[in-house]
Amino acid sequence: MRPLCPCRSCCCLLLFLSLGVQGAPEAAPEQVHLSYPDEPGSMTVTWTTWVPTRSEVQFGLQLTGPLPLRAQGTFSPFVDGGVLRRKFYIHRVTLRGLLPGVQYVYRCGSSRGWSRRFRFRALKNGPHWSPRLAVFGDLGADNPKALPRLRRDTQQGMYDAVLHVGDFAYNMDQDNARVGDKFMRLIEPVAASLPYMTCPGNHEERYNFSNYKARFTMPGNTEGLWYSWDLGPAHIISFSTEVYFFLHYGRHLVERQFHWLESDLQKANKNRAARPWIITMGHRPMYCSNADLDDCTWHESKVRKGLRGKFYGLEDLFYKYGVDLQLWAHEHSYERLWPIYNYQVFNGSRETPYTNPRGPVHIITGSAGCEERLTPFSLFPRPWSAVRVKEYGYTRLHILNGTHVHIQQVSDDQDGKIVDDVWVVRPLLGRMMYL
Ligand SMILES: *[C@@H]1O[C@H](CO)[C@@H](O)[C@H](O)[C@H]1NC(C)=O
Ligand SMILES: *[C@@H]1O[C@H](CO)[C@@H](O)[C@H](O)[C@H]1NC(C)=O
Ligand SMILES: *[C@@H]1O[C@H](CO)[C@@H](O)[C@H](O)[C@H]1NC(C)=O
């Protein structure tokens, strides 16, 4: 074959040009994921590149053909705390003016490299629709049992959003943050199609939670440590239980978060007629009946009773403001509690304990799968423990309307079988406090 170019320098030029068209691999977006910025009609796209490039999202309604809409954003460099000080660039672009419930196609990147095309459905607006969520915690890059089924569910359009209740990758900072990269690539088939909403867990602790804060984009201005958002008939509050345990990063964080929680709960209660459900998510539970020495196995757990058993405890706060449902993880198992306050069971009635419950309902769902495998339960369940499942899986949460919520536990060990199924029913009025 005849050489394409007669001299070495034009060969270089040709090579350069062809790279310019296809894009340098360092400029190609990866680890693409979505989050909802708590602004009706919007969605944020976050991704990573290895060199600084512009941040653009092209989107539209057609699967094929040109993508007519454009949104620009910004990027910020992130330097991991490991010895290699690996540096990468996190891009954030918020799409606005989306039509509620409509499916969009998008790609992200810059002229130096584009992602493949992804699809998502814009969230509906207002309180009068029925959001479906996948909820789980403790999903690792190693042994991510729930992920294949979550992918299939996502492709079938089963959910509107994901709640990942802390503990990612195990750990995102590990191997100079390469484990974080691997994890973010693994979840892309789910997280690039659904808003992937998070809270920090103990495994994010390294370098003051910096991998967590940098990689996710949650609403508010606390780098995802605590925030809240509205979704259909629910107000969802995400917070950090970790501020109670890693005090060396700042004791002031416990107090700041507590005061924020209180004012957010007050606001949510003013709006309660419109959005009756208040749902919290935090990593470490107040109660659990696992056979380990975790905080939740102690009678006066820190999350429940606060620092030194009396400062900034969350059980009283959540009870006082009538929180309906509390989602937790950390224990690698599934446990549902009877409605509870201060170790007392407050069933609505013996026949229908979750109809008009007189205390909050707790769900612990941390069995999505990670290298640490499953956590055993104590031999004898406590009187406040309703259901315990030591199997890999995740939770489906269907917020049907202002009075009815459906909770199901999917078992991956049993090929997707529903191993727990319960409705929580609360009247529209009288939800600001439990009486
Ligand atoms: C850790 O991060 C929080 C905010 O994300 C900050 O307020 C705090 O001062 C940091 N602590 C240290 C020791 O850097
Ligand atoms: C709550 O309801 C469950 C289911 O009917 C029952 O087993 C349990 O004993 C009840 N607890 C109390 C304190 O009434
Ligand atoms: C919610 O849905 C349930 C089941 O369909 C129904 O019985 C109930 O009346 C609905 N509540 C509201 C407030 O629409």
Question: In words, what does this structure look like?
Answer:
Strand 22 (340-341) and strand 23 (344-345) form a beta hairpin. The longest helix is centred in the middle third of the chain and has 19 residues, at 252-270. The chain is globular. The protein has 7 helices and 28 strands. The model is unreliable at 1-21 (pLDDT under 50). 19% of the residues lie in helices and 30% in strands. One 2-acetamido-2-deoxy-beta-D-glucopyranose binds next to loops.
- Mean of all residue-level pLDDT scores: 94
Residue stretches low in confidence (pLDDT < 50, at least 5 long) are 1-21
Number of strand elements? 28
Main beta-sheet strand count, sense and barrel state: 7 strands, mixed
Give the C-alpha Rg.
23 Å
Query: Could you estimate the helical fraction of the residues in percent?
Result: 10-25%
Helix tally equals 7
Topology:
Layout: H1 8-22, E1 30-35, E2 43-49, E3 56-60, E4 69-72, E5 74-79, E6 87-95, E7 103-110, E8 113-114, E9 118-121, E10 132-136, E11 139-140, H2 147-155, E12 161-164, E13 168-169, H3 174-191, E14 196-198, H4 206-215, E15 227-231, E16 234-238, H5 252-270, E17 277-281, H6 302-305, E18 306-307, E19 311-312, H7 314-320, E20 325-328, E21 334-337, E22 340-341, E23 344-345, E24 361-365, E25 385-389, E26 393-399, E27 404-411, E28 417-425
Parallel strand pairs: 10-12, 11-13, 12-14, 16-17, 17-20, 20-24
Antiparallel strand pairs: 1-2, 2-6, 3-4, 3-7, 5-6, 7-8, 7-9, 10-26, 15-16, 18-19, 21-24, 21-25, 22-23, 26-27, 27-28
Helix pairs in contact: 2-3
Bound molecules: 2-acetamido-2-deoxy-beta-D-glucopyranose (3 copies).
Keywords: Glycoprotein, Hydrolase, Signal
Domain Purple acid phosphatase N-terminal: 29-121
EC number: 3.1.3.2
